[in-house]
Design brief:
This protein is an alpha/beta fold and 491 residues long. It has helices at residues 9-17, 31-35, 49-57, 61-71, 94-107, 125-133, 152-165, 181-194, 210-220, 241-248, 259-275, 289-292, 296-308, 315-328, 338-352, 361-368, 380-387, 405-412, 419-427, 429-441, 445-460, 478-487; strands at 4-7, 41-46, 77-81, 111-114, 137-143, 169-174, 199-203, 224-227.
Length: 491
């Protein structure tokens, strides 16, 4: 049997390239054709899609999943779950994680790819148990990064522990595109020697390495690789599917997929992509990621935020500061939510003119241990400066969070029409409430207005940006912090 392929077009590809703005109406027409391809799975949910559906698209993410499940009759549907963070930006109580997994499986998810930003496997335990309980395929993911503490031995140990937890497969999650081809070969070989479950590779093309890394991983024996159709590939997305299929044809790695069928699907998404041109990030290949390790989507958001603050000329300083902050905090991989924590703190350090003079509550919570154990030790002086009188916590972070579902159910009241609504409210209280109120008013016109605006932007381009203020505004308010936290999201 040849290598198998997971298609990411309906989730990570448009999250990476189009700010997660693809609407369900553009997914459903092509879904039956994608279902014929013979993909190992299709990633359709999780990551930033849940938040974006509610916040920007006025869509119910649960309804999207139900519709896609009806359209994909043969191909397993897959999602990305952030462990105890679920699909949000903080840790949630165990009852929320358990109910979310139960409902996600009920509504159509077959494969749960579960990861933790700092690779603290305690933050995966509840989600893994919940997914096993509903009979889903559980894929434990290891966030790949490069640092003095991230070694082959560490990754092998994590893989062994994931297998022992009951994971059915293991994913190497290279969210920043840092995995070099020959390092990928050695990593896959080591994991294949260590565990007895299938190994999958997920890599982004940000640095231009991923297509070569995928090929070397296949030669090393990887079982499944992630790709997107060519019109939605490369840049900060995944490697293109069609060239890989053509390359492997006739070899014992041949996935046996139909190139003509893939080409038709790619042609469809090429037209769809034009509809969302206003949301294009514009990153093709960013070799700078090999130095600063900042994912491409995070760089574009940094640029946007600094421009808002009248400090666009400070980008190089921020990019230089990010690796220093990351080292201070014990080398966390830069993926949601740690990418936001490190990025915002670096901006603060640069603009304040003094490192850690201002500290976000998220940075303090990270150092306290509320996000899990850092991969390496936090710098002692930084720890003292950040914590002040605060104390580090002991044990699994979620043990410090009381149950949340019943309180949320009481708060949202009649606006929640289902258990899915209650979970949406717990995850994104303000955003979900606004969506439910809009839904209760019965406002179909808004979608048409949004579509018209998007079409106008594609045709005429966005309006001129307002002049940047000469001095940074009072951005150290909670609203400003939360805006930074949300907009600096990564896969």
């Amino acid at each position: 049997m040849g290598v198998r392929i997971t298609d990411t077009t309906l989730r990570d590809a448009h999250q990476s390239l189009l700010a997660t703005r693809m609407r369900t109406e553009d997914m459903l027409p092509i879904a039956p054709l994608m279902d014929e391809v013979g993909f190992h799975s299709v990633e359709v949910w999780g990551g930033a899609t849940f938040d974006t559906c509610l916040r920007f698209l006025r869509e119910d993410p649960w309804e999207r999943l139900r519709q896609l499940k009806k359209a994909f009759r043969r191909t397993p549907l897959q999602m990305l779950l952030r462990g105890q963070n679920v699909v949000g930006y903080r840790h949630y109580a165990d009852d929320v994680v358990e109910k979310f997994v139960e409902l996600a499986a009920k509504n159509g998810i077959d494969i749960f790819r579960i990861f933790d930003a700092v690779n603290d496997l305690r933050n995966l335990e509840t989600a893994v148990r919940a997914a096993k309980r509903v009979g889903a395929h559980v894929q434990g993911a290891i966030c790949y990064t490069i640092s003095p503490v991230h070694t082959l031995d560490l990754y092998a140990r994590l893989a062994r522990q994931l297998e022992e937890m009951g994971c059915d497969s293991i994913c190497i999650k290279d969210m920043a595109g840092l995995l070099h081809p020959y390092d990928g070969y050695e990593l896959v070989r080591r994991l294949k020697e260590t565990v007895h479950v299938p190994i999958q590779l997920h890599a982004h093309c940000t640095a231009g390495l991923a297509p070569m890394t995928v090929l070397k991983a296949i030669e090393a024996g990887v079982d499944v690789v992630d790709c997107a159709v060519s019109s939605m590939a490369l840049g900060t997305s995944q490697p293109p599917c069609e060239p890989l299929v053509a390359t492997l044809r006739g070899t014992h790695y041949d996935p046996g997929l139909d190139l003509e069928l893939l080409s038709r699907i790619s042609d469809y998404f090429a037209q769809v992509r034009e509809k969302y041109a206003a949301f294009e990030g514009g990153v093709m290949v960013d070799v700078g990621v090999l130095v600063h390790q900042v994912p491409g989507g995070m760089v574009s958001n940094l640029v946007s935020q600094l421009r808002e603050l009248g400090a666009a000329d400070r980008l190089k300083e921020v990019l230089a500061e990010i690796p220093r902050v990351r080292a201070d905090l014990g080398y966390p991989p830069l993926v949601t939510p740690t990418s936001q924590i490190v990025g915002i703190q670096a901006v603060l350090n640069v603009l304040a003119g003094q490192r850690y003079k201002q500290v976000t509550k998220e940075t303090r919570a990270y150092v306290q241990g509320y996000y899990g154990a850092p991969p390496g030790p936090v710098h002692p002086e930084v720890k003292a400066q950040v914590l002040g009188d605060a104390q580090e916590i002991v044990g699994r972070p979620a043990d410090h969070i009381p149950p949340e579902l019943e309180k949320a159910r009481q708060e949202i009241g009649h606006l929640a029409q289902s258990e899915e609504d209650v979970v949406s409210y717990v995850l994104f209280p303000q955003v979900a409430r606004e969506f439910f109120e809009w839904r209760a008013r019965g406002s179909p016109l808004e979608e048409e207005v949004v579509a018209a605006i998007a079409a106008a932007l594609v045709q005429h381009g966005p309006p001129p940006a307002p002049a940047a203020p000469t001095h940074p505004p009072s951005w150290w308010k909670m609203a400003g912090r939360q805006r930074l936290l949300h907009r600096m999201g990564t896969p």
